[in-house]
Amino acid sequence: EDQVTQSPEALRLQEGESSSLNCSYTVSGLRGLFWYRQDPGKGPEFLFTLYSAGEEKEKERLKATLTKKESFLHITAPKPEDSATYLCAVQGDGGSNYKLTFGKGTLLTVNP
Amino acid sequence: KAGVTQTPRYLIKTRGQQVTLSCSPISGHRSVSWYQQTPGQGLQFLFEYFSETQRNKGNFPGRFSGRQFSNSRSEMNVSTLELGDSALYLCASSSSTGNTQYFGPGTRLTVL
């Protein structure tokens, strides 16, 4: 069974203080690893898809990286508007498996 | 291109009632997945449909069911509602050539 563990559960940063969020996963075969951002009361907003170890993707202040066992979401010089819950999910490649298995998320708060 | 839409956005029901939620995917997307999100369990996969066929089903009781229409719109139904069914129900769509899922805003169901 696919499993995803995210750490820390919550993270408080000062504006401009860079940090990283961790996503550890176990999956029989990785079809894709996904990062989403979720604001309170809203649906998850897609950020990145990573497919293989060594892959990196960037968007504004965010950079996602992938190894064979974990992924990191690096946040450089965050702003208060980056405050949200960040969710990591994996999709295994077993047969007709199309579901996403999510971690519990990291609640990021960026103080001005 | 319009995103995933879900109706209604909010619902209040009482125990024992049944409810139907609706989801319209992004134009051209043929895969629709449903997830339940609660504070304790996070996001959990319910089922996935492609071309009117259920391809995957999560570990939920038979009270949870769904269907997909020829225009790719999907509905999910929950019968004999229980207090524990209170949650945010999220619908996501993906194209037939990609595995990234794009989420709608969700339907907030409260069972009293």
Tell me roughly what share of residues is in helical segments of chain A.
under 10%
Q: Structural class given helices, strands, pairing of chain A? A: mainly beta
Q: Quick one: overall form of chain B?
A: globular
Radius of gyration of chain A: 14 Å
Give, in order, the helices and strands of chain A: EEEEEEEEEEE
Return the average pLDDT of chain A rounded to an integer. 95
Order of helices and strands of chain B: EEEEEEEEEEE
Number of strands of chain A: 11
Explain the overall architecture.
The complex is a heterodimer of chains A (112) and B (112). By secondary structure, chain A is mainly beta. In chain A, 0% of the residues lie in helices and 58% in strands. Chain A has no helices and eleven strands. In chain A, strands 2, 4, 5, 9, 10 and 11 form a six-stranded mixed beta sheet that branches. In chain A, a hairpin with a 3-residue loop joins strand 7 (62-66) and strand 8. In chain A, 37% of the residues are buried. The model of chain A has no long low-confidence stretch (mean pLDDT 95). By secondary structure, chain B is mainly beta. Chain B contains no helices and eleven strands. Chain B has strands spanning 5-7, 10-13, 19-24, 31-38, 42-50, 53-57, 64-68, 74-78, 87-94, 102-103, 107-111. In chain B, the strands form two sheets. In chain B, strands 2, 4, 5, 6, 9, 10 and 11 form a seven-stranded mixed beta sheet that branches. In chain B, a hairpin with a 3-residue loop joins strand 4 (31-38) and strand 5. Chain B is globular and about 40 Å long. The termini of chain B are far apart. The model of chain B has no long low-confidence stretch (mean pLDDT 95).
